[in-house]
Write a structure and sequence with these properties.
heterotrimer, A mainly alpha (282), B alpha/beta (322), C alpha/beta (332), A: mainly alpha, 75% helix, C: 332 residues, four-stranded antiparallel beta sheet, 10 helices, 29% helix
Chain lengths: 282, 322, 332
């Protein structure tokens, strides 16, 4: 990687206080999701018969209260965060790999191959995602794997389009022609010259995809199609909370607040990354 | 009183290090006089122009004094006002610096006129058409309706010149206006600038790295190196006998048809220093074929010697070492 | 002396995309030959097709008609994979040094890249030795090898471009305006370098430029190109001393002069419609709209490239009228 361009980007990011704060918050959330449950007293499915639906800070040990079954809300939220994050990161990784390869090849090859590949993308684009998820659920049953499959099958489409656009303009650059004159083959040119030079927008878009996936997963779990009880995800926690909204609002507020915080931090970080990586500012 | 008086102009850029691109430059331009500043990339010549009218990058700062017709431009509330209402036109190296790609040429020119003189739109369009004809572009009506990308590079540069003239300036700044063009187009654009300056009674400050291009056009030539002016003289004096070794090197490196084929082109050894490099002694000493001990220790000031001002301990003309 | 590179009737089309459509002929029926060790000059202004011609020789753009022969073998109809073997022998020096390097690779990495495909027998150590050797030959300090393109000056980058072209030890190089993007003071260094390399390696080459003064320094034979067609072909002395085509005369007049006495030698000419970027070639001589000597015949009948005295070629109806060449335009 070009030392200069990345170093400049890092320097610009370091100067952006809010971006740093978001990054710190994300690190904190991820650390909490990973290690938090071990540090806390309660397990996520442990029912505390004595303390059902207590408010936050009311009872020792249950910092953020409990739900109607007496399960500690903080621990459940952290678990839900863990599941949601895992699915989001895995789905984003899948869409990154497939989308970048697909888009870069289509953009570089142009002509018939490009047309074929992008029409395929267009067709998939026009399928309604929710129906597709439902069909997959019927075939493979509910669960995180199905969810991952469903989200992954659509997540790479926009990435492919973006990458293809970038690849189309990159292929006209003189250094690509120079590589051809140097005898390089298509795979080498795409892998060594085209893809590394479009990583800027790709990284930015990936950072913005993660919160999108989290929202989709939450929505599907909220609908009952995604993650099922007793496994917690932010989505079904919010679904639970919605049912109790009037009597015990904290059961909704805690996971919803966590979701909002997560999505905001990713979005803001993505925006700042885009500004920092913008070559026009050089 | 000179039309443009530059005194001790310094341009600096803040960042990781403080980079001084222009170092205490003095220059004056009279009415209808044509002055050319010649120097390699990194000599600070473009920053000199941009600094005068406040078009530097965000981290740039100017110090010193630039007076246009008596009024101070540095530190004024709106430095770019010097361009808009008060008679300085600017031609950039690349016409895309002057022209927006998504608006028609006629609209852009008319807008420049309205912004500068506050005339109404119909009159501005008529002025635009006259200006297009004046820069010798064919079919003015069609040209006004076209977009910049529909013209060739040379034609775009003519449009850029027309745009600069819409405010009826008394002084034209031109930053490497022909560098991106072919020799034939270069020659024509220079001839056009020459003709327009004469017709409109404009003074000209032109910046370039190619001394050959201004030889026929300039009244006075200032040679710039590493942020300083190292020689300043009337064109005929400088071209006949340059005093500074750098000027001599620049002149010698222009390829001409008269040279014997197969011989090596004369060059200046090494490359120009990056802006912001620290120096002891004369800045040109590392590349100068005549450098002596004194040159590496002592920075020569710009002093008048005969009919030129030269910053060199051992100039090529006249006595040295005084 | 035998010709190593031969072009016969090469024509290249450029298809304009979008609503305007249509086909522009970038290179129109060009024939030339280059001997072993010869540097042929090709002069013309931007858009005349000279770069396209150079790229056509290296199969970077497809031919619409004509043939390209390298060492007696026809090479224009080879597929991409078969042509790759030839890339070791045919190389290209690009015009804009800032654009022809991958900004994310070091100079050493970019210069070594042709070795991967074209010299597969070399191991890493061998490659490194070659890189160091070639950088020394073009005059680049070894510490620049690990830097990135944006850290080098224009002159240094252009040397790196030449290094990359030479590292596979080619027999023929197309030099596409190698000095146009550089300051005048640096141009001389690169021109001297190219002359030296050509002498030492005995390379055949095509030197493309819009500046006749530089081409005249390096090339014994010069071709003048206008709007995709060769309009004059002659030895250097004949071309400069006695140009037969009005466009050649214009090129000669446009070379900057530092003689302060010769002021305003070029008149500002009103531009012809045909000069606009999207003009399609019409009937008659392409230069007629711009020519001070044009007749009615010039606008209707296209002049063919014909032999004049001394083995010269010129495409002008009136070339016979000035056997001693066109005189310079009088000062305006």
């Amino acid at each position: 990687m070009s030392g200069g361009l990345w170093r400049d980007a890092v320097r610009e990011l370091r100067a952006d206080r809010l971006a740093l704060a978001c990054l710190a918050m994300l690190v904190l959330l991820i650390a909490a999701a990973g290690a938090g449950p071990w540090l806390l007293d309660y397990r996520e499915d442990e029912i505390d018969w004595a303390n059902m639906a207590v408010a936050p800070f009311a009872v020792d040990g249950h910092w953020l209260g409990t739900d109607r079954l007496g399960r500690d809300l903080l621990v459940r939220t952290l678990f839900g965060l863990r599941v949601s994050l895992a699915i989001a990161l895995a789905a984003t990784l899948v869409s990154l790999v497939i989308g970048v390869s697909w888009g870069a090849m289509a953009g570089y090859l142009r002509g018939g191959a490009d047309a074929l590949m992008m029409r395929f993308v267009d067709v998939l684009y026009s399928l309604p995602q929710v129906f597709f998820v439902i069909i997959l659920t019927v075939v493979f049953g509910r669960g995180p794997l199905t969810l991952l499959l469903a989200i992954g099958a659509f997540g790479w489409l926009t990435m492919a389009r973006i990458v293809r656009g970038q690849a189309l303009s990159l292929r006209e650059r003189e250094f690509v022609e120079a590589a051809v004159v140097g005898g390089a083959g298509t795979l080498r040119i795409v892998g060594r010259h085209i893809v590394p030079n479009l990583l800027g927008p790709v990284i930015v878009y990936a950072t913005l995809t993660v919160p999108q996936v989290i929202l989709v997963e939450s929505f599907l779990s909220f609908l009952g199609i995604g993650i099922q009880e007793p496994l917690a995800s932010l989505g079904n926690l919010i679904a639970d909370g919605a049912a109790e909204m009037e009597t015990a609002p904290w059961i909704l507020a805690v996971p919803a607040g966590c979701l909002v915080l997560l999505v905001f931090c990713f979005n803001f970080l993505g925006d700042s990354l885009r500004d920092a990586l913008d070559p026009r500012d050089r | 009183m000179a039309l443009l008086e530059i005194r001790a102009l310094t341009v600096e850029f803040s960042g990781e290090r403080c980079i001084r691109a222009v170092d205490r430059v003095d220059l004056s331009i009279d009415r209808e006089e044509r002055v050319a500043i010649v120097g390699e990339s990194g000599s600070g010549k473009s920053q000199l122009l941009l600094g005068c009218i406040g078009l530097l990058a965000a981290n740039g700062r100017t110090q010193g004094s630039v007076r246009f017709d008596g009024a101070e431009l540095i530190g004024a509330d709106d430095p770019a006002a010097g361009v808009r209402g008060r008679g300085i036109g600017f031609v950039f190296q690349d016409a895309s610096g002057s022209l927006t790609p998504h608006r028609r040429i006629g609209d852009q020119l008319a807008e420049a006129a309205v912004a500068a003189r506050g005339c109404e739109w119909g009159m501005a369009l008529a002025d635009a058409r006259r200006m297009i004809e004046r820069v010798r572009l064919p079919d003015a009506r069609r040209c006004l309706a076209q977009y910049p990308h529909e013209l060739s590079g040379g034609m775009r540069q003519r449009v850029a010149i027309a745009a600069a003239l819409m405010s009826q300036p008394r002084l034209l700044f031109a930053d490497e206006p022909t560098t991106a063009l072919d020799v034939t187009v270069q020659a024509e654009v220079m001839a056009l600038i020459d003709e327009l300056c004469r017709e409109l009674g404009m003074a000209l400050l032109l910046v370039t790295h190619d001394i050959g291009v201004v030889a026929a056009l300039a009244d006075r030539i200032a040679v710039m190196y590493a942020g300083r002016i190292v020689e300043c003289a009337t064109a005929s004096v400088l071209l006949a006998g340059p005093g500074h070794p750098y000027s001599a090197g620049l002149l010698a490196s222009v390829p001409t048809l008269a040279d014997a084929p197969g011989t090596e082109l004369r060059t200046i050894a090494g490359s120009p220093p990056a802006p912001g490099t620290a120096f002891t002694g004369c800045r040109f000493a590392p590349r100068c074929p005549r450098a002596a001990m004194r040159c590496r220790a002592e920075d020569p000031p710009l002093v008048a010697r005969g009919r030129a001002a030269i910053a060199c301990h051992f100039p090529l003309t006249g006595e040295g070492g005084a | 002396m035998s010709a190593v590179l031969e072009l016969r009737g090469v024509t290249v089309h450029y298809c304009r995309r979008g609503a305007r459509g249509g086909v522009l002929t970038a290179v129109d029926d060009v024939s030339l030959s280059i001997d072993n060790g010869e540097m042929l000059g090709l002069v013309g202004e931007s858009g005349c097709g000279k770069t396209t011609l150079g790229k056509a020789i290296l199969a970077l753009v497809p031919l619409a008609a004509g043939e390209v022969h390298w060492r007696g073998q026809r090479i224009d109809h080879l597929g991409t994979r078969h042509f790759r073997a030839l890339r070791r022998e045919l190389q290209f020096v690009f015009q804009d040094p800032n654009a022809c390097f991958d900004p994310r690779m070091t100079i050493a990495g970019s210069v070594a890249e042709p070795l991967r495909a074209l010299a597969p027998g070399l191991d890493a150590a061998g490659q490194a030795t070659r890189v160091t050797g070639i950088l020394g030959e073009v005059g680049l300090a070894p510490e620049l090898a690990g830097r990135y393109p944006h850290q080098l000056s224009g002159g240094q980058l252009q040397r790196a471009v030449i290094a990359r072209a030479l590292i596979v030890d080619p027999r023929f190089v197309v030099c596409d305006e190698p000095v146009s993007a550089l300051d005048v003071s640096v141009q001389g260094q690169i021109v001297n370098l190219l002359a030296r390399i050509r002498r030492e390696r005995g390379l055949a080459s095509l030197f493309i430029s819009h500046n006749l003064a530089i081409v005249a320094r390096l090339c014994e034979r010069i071709l003048v190109m206008y709007r995709g067609r060769i309009v004059e072909a002659a030895s250097r002395d004949a071309l400069i001393g006695a140009p037969l085509h009005p466009y050649t005369r214009e090129l000669l007049d446009a070379v900057p002069t530092i003689d302060a006495g010769a002021r305003r030698r070029v008149r500002v000419r009103p531009l012809d419609r045909a000069d606009s970027a999207l003009a399609v070639a019409a009937t008659g001589c392409a230069f007629a709209g711009r020519c001070a000597h044009a007749l009615a015949r010039c606008r209707s009948e296209r002049p063919l490239l014909q032999s004049a005295a001394d083995g010269r070629l010129v495409a002008c109806h009136r070339a016979g009228e000035w056997p001693r060449g066109l005189p310079p335009v009088a000062a305006g």
